[in-house]
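Budget justification note: compute hours in this period were largely spent on complex prediction jobs such as the one shown. Inputs:
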Amino acid sequence: MSLVTITGLTKKFNTNIAVHNLNLELNKGVCTALLGPNGAGKTTTLSMLAGIMKPTSGSIAFSGVAERDFRKYIGYLPQYPVFYGWMSGKEYLQYVGQLASLSKNEAATKAGELLELVGIADAKKRKISGYSGGMKQRLGIAQALINDPLLLILDEPVSALDPIGRREVLTLMRELKEKTTILFSTHVLHDAEEICDYIYIVKNGEMAINGTLDELQNTHQQPTIYIEGEKELDEWLPKLKQYSFVSELVSNTPKTVTVTVTNVETARRELLNYFGSLNVPIRKFELVRTSLEDLFLKVAKK
Ligand SMILES: Nc1ncnc2c1ncn2[C@@H]1O[C@H](COP(=O)(O)OP(=O)(O)OP(=O)(O)O)[C@@H](O)[C@H]1O
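Corresponding output:
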């Protein structure tokens, strides 16, 4: 069921078109990743969704809500959150709660609940300046949850973290996605693969590819044959390009070649015949599949 429909979203900074005609559908209870290389327009898109930047054109519509100003339904963690290091985690959340119109008592109760939820209740009285990167991000997520948002927007929530902090925050996100709808941006495919249900890949402000993980895998993965020779294969490769079933040929080392093919059975037979007839000794001949990583790199390089 759709929660947010984004249509034709566009943002221009003078002549620079940072986001161009994006259409996104965010479904209730679904964790969606906005994936793209640096400068793809992710932060600009999320800022417009969070209501802190005005689109040049396009529309953002929430389903089934009463108020036109949708900002009250959104919790937002910016890419570079700023904290008051001299405050304790609990003081900070109480402060944010009161800014969000909670009474002093309500803010204190909510702060306590959220500190428990994000797993830093033990550190609630410690100064934020002494928190680790992962703890700060978890506090940032807690502040984004202060108004019980329908949509939680997280801009690159794990990109700046070390492996431990990254794991802490991904685990928290996995728990939160059971409770709320999440949209998060990342330039790391693995993070998207790990916790999200739906992926939008953007490039130069435009939509490149979108789908569920399964859809992307099924639609874009191509069968590939990995061949490793006992000796260098270079001289035998130019002829391979002439086969109609070969769509791509990559030789990363002199003794190896990865051949992306359109028809596995024909390719297997013809390639074995080819090397067999030339008496080229083959050490490995394996059918592999291109990964989502290959797909993402291809989109990013295009
Ligand atoms: N305030 C601004 N004024 C002018 N250009 C901007 C502004 N903000 C972003 N841009 C430009 O818009 C484009 C998209 O930037 P954006 O920060 O949205 O990308 P991103 O995908 O979030 O990148 P990153 O992963 O590096 O954060 C870039 O070309 C950037 O230089």
